[in-house]
Each structure stands twice: as C-alpha cells, then as structure tokens.
Specification:
Layout: H1 2-10, H2 16-25, H3 33-41, H4 49-56, H5 61-67, H6 70-74, H7 77-96, H8 98-102, H9 106-120, H10 128-134, H11 142-167, H12 172-181, H13 197-209, H14 221-237, H15 240-245, H16 247-266
Helix pairs in contact: 1-11, 1-16, 2-7, 4-5, 9-11, 9-16, 10-11, 11-14, 12-13
Length: about 280
C-alpha cells in the first residue's frame, strides 16, 4: 500500500502546477525546498525550525533553519494549505485527466472513499505529522480526498518509522548512514538532507563502533538485521488502518489505485528514486 500511495502524495513536491502555486505565494522555485518545507510543514501551523526538524527527522537542523521560519514570513500556513489543495487539484487534473477528475470515474470515487476510511482508522497518538494532517477538514472532490488520505497514511507510517528508529538507537544522520550502508540507495541520494561531510563521517564512525557498519562503509550482518527489524516494526506500526479496512477492501483499494499510480509514475515528474527508496521512510525525515 505504501508503494501505491506514496507517489500519489509525492506529486505535490514535483508537479509544475505546485511550483506555480508556490511562486504565486512568493516562494522561490529555483529549487524545490522552499515550497517543500512550506507544503509539508503547514499542517503544523507556524512551527519553528526545532519542531520541524524533529518531525522531519532526517534533515539536518541547519538545512531546516534555512527554510523555517522564513516559510511563514512568506505566507501564512492557512494560505499555504489552501494553495496546497489548489496545487494538488491542478496537478491531478493534468496527470489523471480533466475528464476523470471533473466527472469522477466511479473507480476513483470508490478508491477515495476506501482510502479515507483507512486514514480515519489511523491512530494519531504520538504521531505529530499524521495528527496535523488528520485534523484538516476533508475536501469534497474525490481526487482531493484520495490525496489527503494518502497524505495522512504516509505521515502515519512515517511517524511510526521514526519511533522504530528511535527504539533502535539511530539518530537522524545515523538513520541515513545506515540506510545507505545497507545498499538501499547511494549516499549522494541523501545529500539533500544537508548533513556535512564531517557529520556524516562521525555518524558512520559511531555505527562502526557499534558493529553495525564495516570499515568499508557497508552494513555488517548486525547492521542489516537492525535495518530489517526497523522496517518490520515500521510495517507493524502502520498496519492498523489496513486491519480496520479488512483484507478484502484493502485488496480492492490496491486494484483501484493501479490506474492513478501508473498515471503518476508515467508522468515522469517524480525522480527515479521517488518510486523506490529516496522518498521512502527516511524522507520523514
């Protein structure tokens, strides 16, 4: 379900329509980060850099501080949230087709209803980003309901992933180093998180001292076991919405999501890593 829903959420960060809406608010669009931090953090309100870095986790606090709280000097979070929905509306119309959105396909409407039920079954206790998004009013249009449900569910999973990382004793930069060491993605993929070479090296040294990473920078057996345990625990913590939906309706939703998923992936807007690892759990922070 994560593989099917994540691209539907992530379109917001790459669609040209989203950059146009961000520019209209006053955000720079020469890089994606000004709008990314605004779009993603706006449900938290005018949160400061410490709170955003805590919720996003894998970003360097120095990187977060470059964009927050400047984001709220550019536009009020309420205005960002309104523009966010406009951006998703326009992006979905462009990618899924105007006809599919304007006169909703029954399958799209059914998918939206099922995804919303799953999202509403997600407990947000101890999950700040999931709670912030779950607290927003639901839009009326099925394609926007689908996007909002996908957003709640991905943040619910992400918040649980952070709990698993914390329980495993991995701080934000160690989480990325261990992820790269296990071969999940090349180190340059994580450069956007803003950690310095010295911070990355120090984190690797700490993991070497724990026997989780070898001198060559690759994960040891213990390191791979730790990562596997983290992913397993993340899955367990993310299971409740799907248990509430039930296997039959979860399978039905998976079938219904195939068309929108193919449209988003086929649009070419998401980086290759987005459908694989870079925007995976580590992006929640």
């Amino acid at each position: 379900m994560w593989h099917l829903l994540e691209p539907l959420h992530a379109l917001l960060y790459y669609a040209p329509e989203a950059f146009e809406e961000a520019a209209a608010l006053g955000y720079g669009t020469g890089e994606r980060w000004p709008s990314y931090f605004a779009w993603r953090a706006a449900p938290l309100g005018a949160a400061g850099p410490l709170r955003v870095a805590s919720a996003f986790y894998s970003f360097s606090p120095a990187t977060v501080a470059r964009y927050v709280p400047a984001a709220w000097a550019t536009a009020d979070p309420a205005d960002v949230l309104a523009a966010r929905l406009r951006a998703v509306d326009r992006a979905y119309r462009a990618v899924l087709g105007e006809d599919a959105v304007a006169d909703p396909d029954p399958g799209l409407a059914e998918a939206a209803a099922l995804a919303r039920r799953a999202a509403e079954a997600a407990s947000c206790a101890g999950r700040p980003l999931a709670a912030a998004n779950a607290e927003l009013p639901w839009p009326d249009a099925p394609h926007l309901v689908l996007w909002q449900a996908a957003t709640v569910l991905r943040e619910h999973r992400g918040d649980g992933h952070l709990a698993a990382l914390l329980a495993a004793g991995l701080d934000p930069v160690e989480a990325l180093v261990s992820f790269a060491a296990a071969g999940a993605a090349p180190e340059p993929v994580f450069a956007s998180r803003g950690w310095s070479a010295a911070e990355w090296s120090a984190a690797r040294d700490r993991l070497v001292a724990r026997g989780l990473v070898g001198a060559d920078g690759t994960a040891t057996g213990a390191g791979r076991d730790l990562r596997a345990g983290i992913e397993r625990r993340t899955d367990e913590l993310a299971a409740a919405p799907w248990a509430a939906l039930g296997p039959g309706e979860a399978d039905r939703l998976a079938d219904l999501l195939g068309g929108p998923w193919l449209a988003v992936i086929g649009s070419g807007l998401l980086p290759a890593e987005k459908g694989l690892e870079e925007h995976r759990n580590e992006n929640r922070r």
